[in-house]
Amino acid sequence: MSGSRWSSWSGAWRFSANFSPGFSAIGCLPILRGANSFAARFSRKPMSQPQTAISPRRDEDFPEWYQQVVRAADLAENSDVRGCMVIKPWGYGLWENMQRILDGMFKATGHKNAYFPLFIPLSYLAKEAQHVEGFAKECAVVTHHRLEADGRGGLRPAPSAELTEPLVVRPTSETIIGATYAKWVQSYRDLPILINQWANVVRWEMRPRLFLRTAEFLWQEGHTAHETEREAREETTRMLEVYEKFAREHLALPVYTGEKSEAERFPGAVQTLCIEAMVQDRKAIQAGTSHFLGQNFAKASGIQFLSRTNTQEFAWTTSWGVSTRLIGTVIMAHGDDDGVVLPPRIAPAHIVLLPVTPKPETREAVLAAVEALAAELRARTYAGEPIRVEIDQRDIGGGTKNWEWIKKGVPIRVELGPRDLEKGSVAVARRDRAPKDKAFLATAEFVEGAAEMLQSIQDGLLARATALRDAHTVVLDSKEAFYAFFTAKNSERPEIHGGFALAHWNGSREVEEQIKADLKVTIRCIPFQGADEPGTCIFTGQPSRQRVLFAKSY
RNA sequence: CGGGCUGUGGCUCAGCUUGGUAGAGCGCUUCGUUCGGGACGAAGAGGCCGCGGGUUCGAAUCCCGCCAGCCCGACCA
Fold first, then answer.
1. How far is Cα A427 from Cα A435, in angstroms, rounded to an integer?
2. Which of A225, A239, A305, A488 has the maximal Cβ count within 10 Å?
3. Class of A473-551 per CATH?
4. Partners of A169 in the beta sheet?
5. Could you report the per-residue pLDDT of A16-37, keeping only the tens digit for each?
6. Which fold has domain A85-333?
7. Is the C-beta of residue A213 closer than 7 Å to nucleic acid chain B?
8. Residue A546 and residue A349: Cα distance in Å, rounded?
9. What is the ipTM score, two decimals?
């Protein structure tokens, strides 16, 4: 941008070098930033120079940081349609990778894909009482099927074309799929039905945020019907395990698994299981849910079958889903002050090659070498797939180009210039290290170790996220400690505080509501593991069967 | 749906109180100098100032109406 910004950077380098000549780039980084702000105070344009690629930093204003990161990484933007986003190629590439991996896991557990209508008759949605309450307020409704000229050069829905029954744009598909299953199921021999749908859904949210909460979003919804309660419950658990594994192995997200309290349960479900992740402002985010629906929807939709003993029975159903919200979760969990940091497993490109072509006479040779390197890398695999390589030979400044890829979070950046050609080496930078931390590796050595390096980045992200989660997960045994934990020191502009709290709870909804009203803290889940010793509710003194997980959440 | 605020080039905004038919930075284009580190200089392109009406010789600016969006609450993957 401005020349003074760059000179300030180099000034900072000199400054820090005077004090700590032996530091590695990583160790140097905080000092470099500190020195930069120190230097900035004495430069001509003191406050105009961001110290990091993203401004504000996470610790300054996390929500604003998030928005800036989404924009800087070119993942998505707000559209002209209120509450709806345009997912750009880099962001959609993430979704495609998530889709492909999950789809494979669904297939491996016996599911097949199908597609059901976007429009759901109003009467269908009204069939299940709890469901009605849960979704009534947030639906988009189609009332007309034709437009006509309004006489002022515009268009309007034709009054003569009003639908006899309004259609709801699906907020979720339980009802229409239930109605379909009712036709498909006659006998116990027709069960189980194991189907998944990749789709968009609409929930007319009042406060949209890119990826985290938009009026329209993309997801998958699995819908299964079973002969017995036991089978359906097993299915519910199995799919939660799929989500947990996916989050851990592919998104590098350690998650708590557990059951939702009654207050947080999906409308119409008997039991809602979930995976809950912690992001860097220490809030919880529900990253996936799996519902045991009992016979509620089967009864509402008439999914009935003749059993082995010749009796008429209702089927037991489940549903489970994850959405593009996972993209927002990954951004908030792994991103840093220089932008997105992508887990290699889901990165649209694993490696970007940046040809350095300072002189026209060496340009051709460099470009050829880059093409050859790309071919070599693409012939190799990482996590069972060909390594995804992108070449960026756009004619823009090398620094600018490099920073764009840092902000986009590509796991590995490789520079290749004339001097590297002579030495047979490449300059390799990892996104999980400092921006200027480059390793000069022999080309063959780099190619050989590329997949391993990607996995090392993947593992590092999981380790870092796990450390963050564990550092901010506390066991609390008093109401005072609980309130202190979840109260920011600065009430005007709350700093990042709190985290996950494991505490005893008497199981009452009143307590949940009080805590939510006082602190905006909710029960994220009743964990399956590691919290099952009995105790005393810290709010009421009544007995508690186990600790539950509390947090502020998205 | 309640309370507050804002609509000015692609983006962020200044100008409005004290009317005289538009400005800055970033971005974009071209040329030159640079370029193994988010470069610099010069020259350009781009706006009926949200929409409609009113006051006035004259409205981005004042008045009325409408529309849209943002922020704070209730709701939510």
1. 12
2. A225
3. alpha beta
4. A119
5. 222 222 222 222 222 222 222 2
6. BirA Bifunctional Protein; domain 2 (3.30.930)
7. yes
8. 44
9. 0.82
